[in-house]
Input
Amino acid sequence: MKAYNWSKISHLVVRGKGKWCHARIEMDGKEHWRALKIQADEEGLNAPFVIEALRAFKVELARDTYAILQLTRTRDDCSTFAELFAAYRQVCAGRSINPITMERNIKDMRLIIRAIHGKNFSVDTARLSLCTLDLLIDFRAKRTEEFKAKADAAGWDPEIYKAKLRSARVTIKSTIGHARSLFAQVVRQERAYRDLSIPEISEFMAFQAGGGTTREFIMPKPEVIAALKAGAEEFLTSNPPLWFALVLTANGGLRRGSAKYAKWDWFNNGAADGSAIMRVAVAKRGTYTTGISPRTWAAMKEHRLSPSEYILPGDLAERDEVLEELKIWLREIGYQENRCPVHELRGLYGNTAAKEHGLQAASEGLGHRDQRTTRDSYVEHGTAKFTDAV
Output
């Protein structure tokens, strides 16, 4: 294989029999990656065809035409984004995934591609071969540059700049995560995806979108904890919908989106101690389970607001208003300005669960696949406990 390499080729990756050949080529100090649309032979390398493809690729790079070719070339081995979106919608409908979440994920995939290839770029007719590591790197870099230009124009002081930069990074990471949901393992296993031709996307999926930043949990100040307890006692009689929202997020550890769609049939109250097990439905993961204490569960049943299947009352917009009211109240009692306060209640749940039952139990109760996520972002050592909102 060395006989076929040139000095400017950093390395050639071959995945084995029946897999595609891949190449990384370095030219003028820049690294370029391409799936060569050539399968390895029985010996692991279809050498003549690979070398021809590499030679053509080098010519494209030298002529500075690769960027144009990357946009215009169609590849018969890859499905289009329109086909991907149709399959994803079909899977979401079959799994009862929130339609708003589904369309948001599709929208963010479009957003990433158009951010790099132009706002008028036809995403639906483009091939999935656009889903490369470079696409995500370029998107993150462009959004970061746009933020810094905005900051320079606004003249923010260092503290405001730092807080807003963190928020911008979280937005970038969330956007990339939403887009990659279309390739999540749980949906790719469904029948609707079997007819799709998806290129090699391991690097696209493995990209660390956060840029090395880690969200650290900060325990609320004692006066904020006291205000949470006092508010919970007051809301039980004065504002029951707000009380239920507080219970679902602080006692159940639910994300805001999950709390908005939480249903009574998620609960199984058959535990001998009177506690309830809640099976939470999440778009990317499917379901996970978490627990509600006997005292809280008894109060929930006693104060059930309506015969509706949803725990929070009203239609979707009304349930969202309740959670927005919770967000405003949390700000008023002193939650950090640079954080999403409703999600901070989820962190409070994780921190308490880890201290009382261990990291594994906390991770399972939060629905995390990796305990490191719980450890790094939801646990603070040596802090006070907050166990029940009632």
Notes: DSSP finds 16 helices and six strands in the chain. The chain has three domains: 2-72, 81-206, 222-377. Confidence is low (pLDDT under 50) at residues 1-19, 42-46, 66-76, 382-390. Residues 204 and 349 are 32 Å apart (CA to CA).
